[in-house]
Task: inverse folding
């Protein structure tokens, strides 16, 4: 009987955990594209026509404008410190979306720009921005916003966006 009681408690605990997880599971969000049926005619809104970008993003991005792209020549390597030792490395490759014809001046200022980007990424790492599922949600929005802010501080309005081309985290 002594050996049966812990096993019975474990099975009951597992059942309660599964039941609670099923009960507390969030409902799936309905996207605006779900109501758009291409067979019944044109979609009603621009958001429904562009399933990969929200209408708010499309309003701020000028599709007719031409942009140049400058890939920063070296990757950024950010150490993740846990308990006073390097527990992981995050490697990022960045590019800049810029006004046409200013590539040379942007590359000439790249050392200052890289320094600013590294400061942002170190602060992001130290605040836990690269922990867990770091490529989802608010964490990436915060990182992109901070990178854009630094780019505009050093380069002005010639920068439209900072693009994260690659991001890899390697546990050590």
Result:
């Amino acid at each position: 009987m002594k050996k049966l009681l812990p096993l019975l408690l474990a099975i009951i605990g597992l059942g309660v955990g599964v039941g609670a997880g099923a009960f507390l599971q969030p409902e799936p969000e309905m996207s605006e594209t779900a109501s758009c049926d291409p067979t019944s005619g044109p979609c009603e809104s621009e958001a429904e026509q562009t399933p990969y970008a929200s209408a708010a993003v499309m309003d701020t991005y000028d599709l007719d404008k031409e942009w140049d792209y400058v890939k920063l020549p070296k990757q950024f390597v950010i150490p993740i410190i846990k308990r006073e030792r390097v527990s992981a490395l995050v490697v990022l490759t960045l590019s800049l979306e810029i006004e046409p014809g200013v590539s040379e001046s942007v590359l000439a200022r790249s050392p200052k720009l890289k320094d600013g980007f590294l400061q942002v990424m170190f602060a992001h790492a130290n605040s836990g921005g690269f922990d867990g599922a770091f490529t989802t949600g608010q964490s990436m929005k915060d990182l992109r916003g901070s990178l854009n802010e630094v780019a505009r501080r050093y380069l002005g309005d010639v920068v439209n966006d900072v693009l994260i081309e690659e991001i890899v985290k390697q546990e050590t």
The first strand starts at residue 68 and ends at 71. Confidence is low (pLDDT under 50) at residues 30-35, 38-42, 44-58. Residues 99 and 158 are 5 Å apart (CA to CA). The radius of gyration is 23 Å.
